[in-house]
Write a structure and sequence with these properties.
about 350 residues, Quinone Oxidoreductase, Chain A, domain 1, Rossmann fold, 7-stranded mixed beta sheet, 6-stranded parallel beta sheet, binds NADP nicotinamide-adenine-dinucleotide phosphate
C-alpha cells in the first residue's frame, strides 16, 4: 500500500468573522496534517461536538481551519511505527481530532501513534464507529462509577440525554451490567426505543423542571449526566446517601445551580468524565472490552444508519435542534468487505 496520488474528499471547517463555514473539498495527501501513520478512513461518525464545531454553535475549533470529525476508523496504509503495520485496522476517538488537528471527515488521515488503538478482530471498522466517542465515553463513565464503588445493588441509575449517543450507550451498558436504569429524556415518543436499549423507567422534563428545593427525595444510586444545567442539578439533589453522579456533557447548559447540601448532608460525589485524556493503556483496555465483555448488545438499535460525507453539511443542524435518536455513522471510504452491521473481521 502507498499514499494516494489522486485527490480525495474532505470536509473542511473554516473559522470566519461571523462563525464557521464548511467546505467539501478535493485535497491531496500533502494537504493533511503530517503524521507518521497514514490511514485510509472507512468510517467516521457524528458527535454533538462535531455539530457544534461545524455549525459554529459552540467554540470548538482551536485553529483557523481544520478537517472536521472527532472519530475515525480505517486501515493503515503507511507507517513508521512497528506497532501499527500496514493493513492493520485502527480506531481514533477524540484526542483533538476535528478540533486541533485534521480529523475523520476525510478519505485519508495522517496521525501519531498515541491517538490510535488497533482494532480487536471482534470489531469491524463500521462497528467501531457505531460505538465511537459516545460508546467509549459511556463505558469510561461506568468504569469510573464502579471504581468509586458502585454495584448493582446500590440502587437505580439515572441517565440524562438518554436518547443521545452517550446517553443511549450509558443506558445499554449499565443495563447489561445489571443496573436498573431510569432514562431522562426531553423527547416525547421515544419510550419504545429507550425500553429496547435497556431503560426500565422513563422520566420526562417536567420532573427536573419542577421546583428547586436544596434536597429532593433520595432515589438514585448513581447517575450519568450528558446535558448539564437543571437535569444535572436535579440528579444531584435526588441522589441517595453516598451516591456518585458522573458529569459527562452539557448539551443543554454549562450552568449548575445547587447548594452544598447534597454533598455535605448526603455525601453525594460528583465525578468528572474526560474521554480525551485517557492514557494509552486504559484506552486500549476500554476498546478491548467494547469488543468483548462490554460489547453493547443494542449496537444496531442505537446506531442503525449511516450517511455519506456529502450529506454531512446539511445534517449537523439535526444535532443542534435535538432531532436525533441514537447515533449516525458517516460512510467515508467504506470497509472493502461491506461493513454494515457488527460482524467480525
Ligand atoms: N466528557 C466527555 O469526555 C464527553 C465525551 C463525549 C460527549 N460529551 C458531551 O456529552 C454530551 C452528549 O454528547 P453526544 O455526542 O451523546 O450528543 P447527542 O448524541 O447529540 O445527544 C445529546 C442528548 O442530550 C439531550 N439534550 C438535552 N438538551 C439538549 C439540547 N438543548 N440540545 C441538544 N440535545 C439536548 C438530548 O437527549 P434527550 O432528548 O433524550 O434528552 C440529546 O439526544 C455533549 O455535551 C457532548 O459534548 C462529553
Amino acid at each position: 500500500m502507498s499514499v494516494p496520488t489522486r485527490s480525495f474528499r474532505a470536509l473542511r471547517l473554516i473559522q470566519t468573522g461571523s462563525g464557521v463555514r464548511m467546505e467539501l473539498e478535493e485535497i491531496h495527501w500533502d494537504d493533511l496534517d503530517p503524521g507518521p501513520i497514514g490511514i485510509r478512513v472507512h468510517y467516521s461518525s457524528v458527535n454533538y461536538k462535531d455539530a457544534l464545531a461545524a455549525t459554529g454553535a459552540g467554540k470548538i475549533l482551536r485553529r483557523p481551519t481544520v478537517i472536521g470529525g472527532l472519530d475515525l476508523a480505517g486501515e493503515v496504509i503507511t507507517s513508521e511505527d512497528p506497532d501499527f503495520p500496514c493493513g492493520c485496522r485502527v480506531v481514533a476517538v477524540g484526542g483533538g481530532l476535528g478540533e486541533a488537528r485534521d480529523g475523520g471527515f476525510s478519505e485519508y488521515a495522517r496521525l501519531p501513534a498515541d491517538l490510535l488503538v488497533r482494532l480487536d478482530p471482534g470489531l469491524t471498522t463500521y462497528a467501531a464507529m457505531q460505538i465511537g466517542t459516545a460508546g467509549f465515553t459511556a463505558l469510561l463513565a461506568q468504569r469510573r462509577l464502579e471504581a468509586f464503588g458502585l454495584r448493582p445493588g446500590d440502587g437505580p441509575v439515572v441517565v440524562s440525554g438518554a436518547t443521545g449517543g452517550v446517553g443511549s450507550f450509558a443506558v445499554n451498558l449499565m443495563r447489561e451490567a445489571g443496573y436498573a436504569v431510569s432514562a431522562l429524556t426531553q423527547k416525547r415518543g421515544c419510550e419504545e426505543y429507550l425500553r429496547a436499549i435497556g431503560a426500565v423507567d422513563i422520566i420526562g422534563p417536567e420532573a427536573w423542571e419542577a421546583g428547586e428545593p436544596a434536597l429532593l427525595p433520595a432515589r438514585w444510586g448513581a447517575g450519568i449526566d450528558n446535558v448539564g444545567g437543571h437535569a444535572l442539578s436535579w440528579m444531584i439533589r435526588s441522589a441517595r446517601r453516598g451516591a456518585a453522579i458522573a458529569a459527562v456533557g452539557m448539551a443543554s447548559s454549562a450552568d449548575l445551580r445547587l447548594t452544598v447540601f447534597p454533598f455535605i448532608l448526603r455525601g453525594v460525589s460528583l465525578i468528572g468524565i474526560n474521554s480525551t485524556e485517557v492514557e494509552t493503556g486504559a484506552r486500549r483496555a476500554l476498546w478491548h472490552d467494547l469488543a468483548h465483555a462490554s460489547r453493547p448488545r443494542a449496537l444496531d438499535r442505537i446506531a442503525p444508519q449511516h450517511i455519506s460525507l456529502a450529506a454531512l453539511p446539511t445534517s449537523f443542524g439535526d444535532w443542534i435542534q435535538n432531532r436525533i435518536v441514537g447515533r449516525v455513522v458517516v460512510a467515508i471510504g467504506e470497509e472493502p468487505s461491506g461493513g454494515s452491521g457488527v460482524k467480525s473481521g
